Amino acid sequence: MAAAEAAAVVLSCLKPDPAPVPESAGTAAATAATSSAMAAAAAVAAAARTGSEARVSKPALATKLLSLSGVFAVHKPKGPTSAELLNRLKEKLLAEAGMPSPEWTKRKKQTLKIGHGGTLDSAARGVLVVGIGRGTKMLTSMLSGSKRYIAIGELGKATDTLDSTGKVTEEKPYDKITQEDIESILQKFTGNIMQVPPLYSALKKDGQRLSALMKRGEEVEAKPARPVTVYSLSLQKFQPPFFTLDVECGGGFYIRSLVSDIGKELSSCANVLELTRTKQGPFTLEEHALPEDKWTIDDIAQSLERCSSLFPAELALKKSKPEESNEQVLSSLLVRV
After folding, report:
1. Residue 324 placed within a domain
2. For a surface tag, which of 9, 162, 190, 274 has the fewest beta carbons within 10 Å of its beta carbon?
């Protein structure tokens, strides 16, 4: 007999007689015993239901995970690269759904399709936009969209990476630089300008990233200056040698190059000490970026629902065709990180 059925029988047997019975010590003891037994039976029934739910939860979660489509944002901490963070996110979701299990590994195409919409430096933190399912097709629009950053620069030191992770290549005095000096030159870096990308970057030469070539000690020529757009640029704080900038820019712009160029314009040098992306497209760090403890299937599903209204109608995802079976949906999804 199943546990739930057994509990139902126990509960049935323990129904009190509808006729009133005078209270006595013996009756009270019997009533207490009856209540205890009923509670135990209810616990058995609950355990049976929980066991049943546990048996179906993993397949149900896997189906839900692989049906997710759209774009959301996560909060990237300092340390991991954008690709490493995406792998961590994917692993957490697959583990929650009980994948890969033997039945999944037999069908290699039935895996998770996920990607990010714009690399964030490993030393930086902030908004990283993620596409899941058919939402990966929307990520191209995120690459060219506007982004906003809070950057803390350090005057007097230049590094090979243009940030604090690199080796110091030059030191110059900065003691005569004033807040007014910095504010007066920011207009030169606002609007449509030309910018030389840093050597340590995700840009490629012969199919390989410049940063990878530099780390191997190979000679790399700087890429030519290219047009970029800065929508707004302001100085938030100046406490020598540190200065804080609020920057809103378009795609392909490098904050590290901006800070380095500002240092040169001031007849000194500078590198990025801290960098936070506070906004990418319609996603903001405060409102939309999920911290790691929210990287669950349910939390992401809720975020996708909330974020669907952030995009214009022409970017809205089409719903799956009703006749499309789970097997067809699963077999059409490929891992992309």
Report:
1. no
2. 9
**DSSP H helical segments within 193-251, as ranges?**
210-215
- pTM given for the model: 0.73
Q: Which residues are catalytic?
A: 121
179 and 105 in one domain?
no
Return the structure tokens found at 314: 């022409």
Q: 60 in the Ramachandran plot: left (φ > 0), alpha (ψ -120 to 50) or beta?
A: alpha
Domain that holds residue 49: 3-53
Nearest to 337 by CA among 146, 152, 136: 136
Q: Are residues 133 and 153 in the same domain?
A: no
* CATH number for the domain harbouring residue 130: 3.30.70
What's the token pair of residue 93? 């979701």
Q: What is the pLDDT of residue 103?
A: 53
pLDDT at 27 over 90: no
Residue 301 lies in a domain: yes
